[in-house]
Write a structure and sequence with these properties.
This protein is α/β, with parallel strands linked by helices and 232 residues long. The protein has helices at residues 15-22, 37-43, 45-53, 68-81, 94-104, 121-127, 134-147, 160-166, 194-200, 209-212, 217-229, and strands at 7-9, 32-36, 57-64, 85-89, 109-113, 152-154, 172-175, 204-207. The chain is globular. The structure holds cytidine-5'-monophosphate (C5P). Cytidine-5'-monophosphate is lined by residues 9, 11, 36, 116-117, 154, 176-177, 186, 188, 206-209.
Length: 232
């Protein structure tokens, strides 16, 4: 699976900002966008129907983590919204992930978060009492995600190789932390350019600020898309 469109992270506080932003793209240009907790909790399901009515695809990034029964029921609701992709925390366990898959059904892509990229190895060992390397923990969670029958994981582009080796070449890796060559890294530390992520084997890239904060978002989007689709 390879998604040609970079997924744009709509990290905005309200629906009006989203409308303004999407208005900067030509009508008829079908985008793939990520809606996260802030926007979803602020606007509810309305933002999903609005974005869908414009013909865009949606990754709803809510990172569910609860008992299997609750997650399965919640996933049924998300499936009803018609989102194309959503996610859970792998730390919820195989049973929870399998329940999520049952709830979400087969119509969309379901992926899991392994270790958040904001977690350092030291924090993982201290806070979660996982006494191994971060890399080992990511590999372990990826295997459990595959065992539960999910489609893939959210990960750093630096982890794609080890994850596909531990699971399969078809296991989806969706990678944030992408920056065009020579741009501002913001608070992202371990970054890759779109082309590097492609060459590392990413299936989807998520890009936020380099597009949302650009003077000309459509131009920035096209440049990132061209780099991501460039032949290697
Ligand atoms: O602006 P930027 O390109 O850094 O945005 C990346 C997006 O991907 C943000 O919405 C951020 O929350 C999300 N993300 C991330 N790293 C992860 C998971 C999600 O940067 N491991």
């Amino acid at each position: 699976m390879f998604e040609k469109r970079p997924i744009i992270a709509l990290d905005f506080p309200d629906g009006d900002s989203v409308k303004r932003f999407l208005g900067k793209f030509p009508e008829g240009e079908s985008l793939y966008v990520k809606i996260g907790m802030e926007l979803y909790y602020a606007c509810g399901a309305e933002i999903i129907s609005y974005v869908k009515s414009m013909g865009h695809s949606i990754f709803l990034d809510l990172k569910l983590h609860d008992i299997p029964n609750t997650v399965e029921a919640a996933m049924r609701v998300l499936a009803e919204l018609g989102v194309d992709m959503t996610n859970v925390h792998a730390a919820g366990g195989v049973e929870m992930m399998a329940a999520a898959k049952r709830g979400f059904g087969k119509q969309g892509i379901l992926i899991a978060v392994t270790q958040l990229t904001s977690t350092s190895q030291e924090q993982m060992q201290d806070n979660q009492n996982i006494q191994t390397t971060l890399e080992d923990s990511v590999r372990h969670y990826a295997k459990k995600t595959a065992e539960a029958g999910l489609d893939g994981v959210v990960c750093s582009a630096h982890e794609v190789g080890l994850i596909k080796e531990a699971t399969s070449i078809d296991f989806v890796c969706l990678t944030p932390g992408i920056r065009p060559a020579g741009s501002d890294c913001g608070d992202q530390k371990r970054i890759m350019t779109p082309r590097q992520a492609r060459s590392a084997g990413s299936n989807f890239i998520v890009v936020g600020r380099p597009i949302t904060q650009a003077a000309d978002p459509y131009q920035a989007y096209q440049a990132i898309k061209a780099d991501w689709n460039a032949s290697l």
